[in-house]
Design a protein that fits this description.
Radius of gyration: 19 Å
Strand content: under 5%
Helix content: over 70%
Subcellular location: Membrane
Keywords: Membrane, Transmembrane, Transmembrane helix
Distance between the termini: 5 Å
Membrane topology: Multi-pass membrane protein
Shape: globular
Number of domains: 1
Number of helices: 8
InterPro entries: CysZ/EI24 (IPR059112)
Number of strands: 0
Largest sheet: none
Organism: Allopontixanthobacter sediminis
Order of helices and strands: HHHHHHHH
Length: 232
């Protein structure tokens, strides 16, 4: 786990790299577009629900609905959407980090077909939604503790994020998940992987930093995958 501060420091230090900035611009544009579409759908759903219940829909109520849709959408959707979109651009982030720091690894990396990227993205999104739905009843039960719900969701999403960020890098250097070949052991130890995901989960809750968090996480994961193997 000692390599984690080093990995994050190097990831932040490379944010000014033109290749990283291009990925950030593309992923942010697509994330906001998808978020806007989903937010609009949520707003429309709330609107139709109110109309069907016979509630008069005026300007003041419209403002309340818009605010509610933004808050609910931001809390529930942004992290899932941002990470799902990053799956399609992760190869560029990893490529940029490997090109600067690990050229030997870059030379042996495989190019992931878009069909496999799509499968990975859908699998990741489904896993995030399923695990959070499973955790939801426990989170509701912990509401009485005041902080238990937040801690549970942080732990669950930290575990999920650590795994996803590792796979974004490692799949370039191993066979696809449906390959018949024997899978190598995970390149990042369980403790470091959870710490990586936990830190990124925290960054995703901070305004403005949450826009950079997926990029920083993918870059840090690249350093952790390629660092000299040490036990956690």
């Amino acid at each position: 786990m000692t390599g984690l501060p080093f990995a994050f420091a190097r990831a932040v230090g490379q944010l000014s790299d033109p290749a990283i900035l291009r990925v950030l611009a593309r992923s942010l544009a697509v994330t906001l577009l998808v978020f806007a579409v989903l937010g609009g759908a949520l707003w429309l759903g709330l609107y139709r629900t109110l109309v069907d219940q016979g509630v008069a829909y005026g300007a003041e109520l419209g403002t309340v609905v818009a605010i509610a849709a933004t808050v609910i959408g931001g809390w529930l959707l942004f992290r899932v959407v941002a990470l799902a979109v990053l799956q399609f651009f992760a190869d560029d982030v990893v490529h940029a980090v490997e090109a600067r720091h690990y050229p030997a690894a870059l030379a042996t990396a495989r190019s992931i077909p878009w069909q496999e990227e799509l499968r990975n993205s859908l699998r990741s999104t489904a896993r995030v939604l399923l695990v959070n739905l499973i955790a939801l009843p426990f989170a509701l039960a912990l509401l009485v503790t005041g902080v238990g719900t937040a801690i549970l969701f942080w732990a669950v999403n930290g575990w999920l994020l650590g795994r996803e960020l590792q796979d974004m890098v490692w799949l370039r250097h191993s066979g696809p998940k449906n390959s018949q070949a024997e899978s190598p052991p995970p390149p990042i130890g369980a403790g470091t992987r959870f710490a990586l995901g936990g830190l990124v989960a925290i960054l995703l809750t901070v305004p403005f930093l949450n826009l950079l968090a997926p990029i920083i996480g993918a870059a840090a994961a690249t350093h952790l995958v390629h660092r000299p193997r040490k036990p956690d």
